[in-house]
């Protein structure tokens, strides 16, 4: 005989789980909330207790940040380097994933494992040889230099995510298209790419976010011309007011928060693509 729980107990359990989820979410989001509030405070209020309320909001910090040519240059560098590296990643990763999914029958697992292992290598072990190589070819403190570094860092992840989307496409579809006379290029662009589009969208979002947030390599390989926002914020931590530092940090994080919020459904769909047959 199965004894069901009373409705009141189920309701209390759901309420407790919901309350715990909100508590964890607000705890994790509290640094962002404090940063956002401080960005709209004046210098005096910003130096007080972080959550001091109420206060008179002001846009002076945001205006002063955008009036600074170094901030706008860093913002432009972040856009160019993040989207440029993602574009270059896709040029290399998507054809590689296609070959792994449909044309490589032996050694596929070692290749994928080897690619992913390179992503988990500590950057500190590669920074000196990378710096010497980039210095020799004149790519230190350049946008293209960081694009190459970001591409090499994210290429294994983008390739694996693209492969994970393509491997769920039935091979019989491509075989039927081949019998009908479709070339490899037609199969790739007309059939494979549209079918795995959700997974490719997710891979693009992951690549952009990783490139945008990358700080270690940007600090090591840039000094002025190629500095992105992630490295520029680090230069302000010692000699800037809390209000200006919060304003720059808000500008650096807001685009990724907005992209994540707008694309959350597509992102979730891409990550679960092919999970349910």
Q: Helix coverage percent of residues?
A: over 70%
In the predicted model, the low-confidence regions spanning at least 5 consecutive residues are none
**How far apart lie the N and C ends?**
35 Å
Structural class: mainly alpha
Query: What global shape is seen?
Result: globular
The CATH superfamily is identified as MetI-like
Total beta strand runs? 0
Radius of gyration: 24 Å
Number of domains: 1
Largest sheet: none
CATH topology: MetI-like fold
How many distinct helices?
A: 14
Oligomer state of the chains in this structure: single chain
List SSEs in N-to-C order.
Answer: HHHHHHHHHHHHHH
CATH architecture: Orthogonal Bundle
Q: Taking all residues together, what is the mean pLDDT?
A: 83
Detail the topology: elements first, then pairings:
Layout: H1 7-39, H2 43-46, H3 60-67, H4 69-102, H5 108-119, H6 127-136, H7 143-166, H8 171-179, H9 184-195, H10 197-213, H11 216-221, H12 229-236, H13 242-262, H14 264-271
Briefly characterize the structure.
The protein is mostly helical. The chain has helices at residues 7-39, 43-46, 60-67, 69-102, 108-119, 127-136, 143-166, 171-179, 184-195, 197-213, 216-221, 229-236, 242-262, 264-271.
């Amino acid at each position: 005989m199965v004894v069901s729980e009373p409705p009141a107990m189920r309701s209390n359990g759901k309420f407790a789980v919901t309350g715990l989820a909100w508590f964890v979410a607000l705890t994790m989001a509290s640094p962002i909330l404090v940063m956002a509030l401080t960005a709209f405070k004046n210098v005096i209020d910003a130096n007080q207790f972080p959550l001091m309320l109420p206060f008179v909001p002001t846009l002076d910090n945001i205006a002063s940040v955008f009036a600074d040519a170094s901030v706008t240059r860093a913002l432009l560098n972040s856009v160019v380097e993040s989207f440029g590296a993602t574009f270059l990643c896709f040029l290399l990763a998507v054809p590689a994933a296609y070959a792994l999914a449909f044309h490589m029958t032996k050694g596929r697992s070692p290749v994928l494992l080897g690619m992913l292992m390179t992503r988990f290598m500590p950057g500190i072990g590669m920074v000196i040889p990378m710096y010497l190589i980039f210095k020799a070819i004149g790519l230190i403190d350049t946008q293209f230099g960081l694009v190459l570094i970001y591409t090499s860092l994210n290429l294994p992840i983008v390739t694996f995510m693209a492969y994970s989307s393509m491997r769920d496409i039935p091979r019989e579809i491509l075989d039927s298209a081949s019998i009908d006379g479709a070339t490899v290029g037609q199969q790739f662009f007309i059939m494979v790419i549209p079918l795995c589009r959700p997974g490719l969208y997710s891979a693009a979002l992951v690549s952009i976010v990783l490139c945008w947030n990358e700080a270690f390599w940007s600090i090591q390989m840039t000094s002025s011309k190629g500095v992105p926002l992630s490295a520029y914020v680090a230069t302000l931590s010692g000699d800037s007011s809390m209000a200006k530092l919060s304003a720059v940090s808000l500008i650096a994080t807001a685009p990724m928060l907005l992209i994540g919020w707008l694309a959350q459904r597509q992102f979730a769909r891409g990550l679960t693509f092919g999970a349910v047959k």
